[in-house]
Design brief:
The protein has 398 residues and is α/β, with parallel strands linked by helices.
Length: 398
């Protein structure tokens, strides 16, 4: 039996175990940097396989090494994120979130269970490959400054230093059984915008005696779109969105201040810096011209995610070997953000997508929604594929 067939056989044999793991994690979600029980569960599972996990990296991060023959020949890293989102789940399933207001709505339960499955497969086959696989179970992907940046600061890419890193993420736009790759620029940077517009509140019937921060904020939100529509070049994908506006007045009460929160995303670091300057200047000038004052803050978030062309092209071919050419597709630029981007700024990286959609089963909801779910057939595929990619990468020079 070929090594590829052995991987597929083991993935099939442990598929029920992988699914049980995913359902446990789904029903016990924890928010970013609070994944204490999740980390314990991951470490305990790795020990059951025979591994010796290291805990407490960036507080709740875990890593482990799987050493094959000649372990120093080449080192690669595989990463999964472990945190959940502040969303109240609406799915009617037996493994629904048991933590009200917290949900694995981005598939991190699938990423973690899949990588645990990969660890199981690779440990069983460790005498059939050379080199070392570093397994990274990372906290806080969903919250700035991002668990990836903290794990890097604490040395996750050292001792031993991986040559490259692979990451897998569910994609509800892709049918189960499909895998997607994108070479080069793939995902956007993401900065958080916080604006407080200050005026002078009062009776809604006497606006002439007030400085209306609601009116100012309304103009501001519209005016800021000019930064995208009039300054960003057509070849520079840019997104500016505002998702939260708080004006705690009433039908007849103008409040003293309005708070606005949003996100700025792009794929060009020079433009990213320039746009922030333009936004700050526009905000301060417009608010002052209408008689108000403001606090304008941008929290620097994740950088853009860059998939090394050679590494990604190579792993796409490896995926074709495992899945068949008809099941491996090319992806477009995605304006969402991922803190896997921090790894891609440090070493060669490949971040690819695992299809989880199944319209026949009604599994079509997007990530970050209360009804998000996956076709669990994807877990066996994801575990086996990542094991195959890891072994093929270890066989590759450089």
């Amino acid at each position: 039996m070929s090594l590829k067939e052995k991987i597929k056989q083991i993935a099939s044999e442990i598929s029920e175990e992988i699914t049980d793991t995913r359902r446990y994690l789904h029903s016990h979600p924890e928010l970013s940097f609070r994944e204490f029980e999740t980390a314990k569960y991951v470490a305990s599972t790795l020990r059951k396989f025979g591994l010796q996990p290291v805990e407490g990296i960036a507080q709740t991060g875990v890593y482990a090494l799987i050493e094959g023959k000649n372990p120093s020949k080449k080192v690669i890293a595989l990463r999964a994120d472990i945190d959940a989102l502040p969303i109240n789940e609406t799915n009617n399933i037996s493994y629904k979130s048991g933590n009200p207001g917290v949900m694995h709505a981005c598939g991190h339960d699938a990423h973690t269970s899949s990588l645990l499955g990969t660890a199981n497969i690779l440990y069983q086959l460790k005498d059939q490959f050379e080199g070392t696989v570093k397994l990274i179970f990372q906290p806080g992907e969903e919250k700035a400054p991002g668990g990836a940046s903290l794990m890097i600061k604490e040395g996750i890419l050292k001792n031993p230093k991986p040559t490259n890193i692979l990451g897998q993420h569910v994609m509800p736009l892709l049918p189960v059984g499909k895998i997607g790759f994108k070479e080069g620029l793939y995902m956007a940077s993401a900065d958080e915008i916080y604006i407080t517009v200050k005026g002078r509140g009062g009776h809604g019937a006497m606006p002439d005696r007030n400085i209306d921060p609601v009116l100012i904020a309304s103009h501001l939100i519209v005016a800021l779109q000019q930064v995208v529509s009039r300054y960003a070049t057509p070849t520079t994908p840019t997104v500016l969105s505002f998702g939260k506006v708080i004006a705690e007045g009433a039908t007849n009460i103008i409040p003293d201040e309005v708070k606005i929160e949003g996100t700025f995303r792009t794929l060009n670091e020079d433009w990213r810096r320039e746009a922030k300057i333009k936004m700050k200047k526009l905000v301060e000038g417009l608010v002052a011209s209408m008689g108000g004052t403001c606090d304008f803050n941008i929290l620097d978030g994740y950088p853009f995610l860059y998939n090394n062309e050679i590494l990604t092209r190579r792993n796409k071919e490896f995926a074709i070997e495992y899945m068949g050419k008809e099941n491996v597709v090319d992806l477009d630029i995605w304006m969402a953000a991922e803190d896997f981007a921090f790894y891609s700024q440090e070493i060669d990286a490949c971040f690819y997508r695992l299809g989880v959609r199944n319209e026949a089963k009604g599994i079509t909801s997007n990530v970050h929604t209360p009804s998000f779910n996956i076709d669990e057939d994807a877990l066996e595929i994801g575990s086996g594929l990542m094991a195959w990619l890891a072994i093929r990468e270890l066989e590759t020079k450089g």
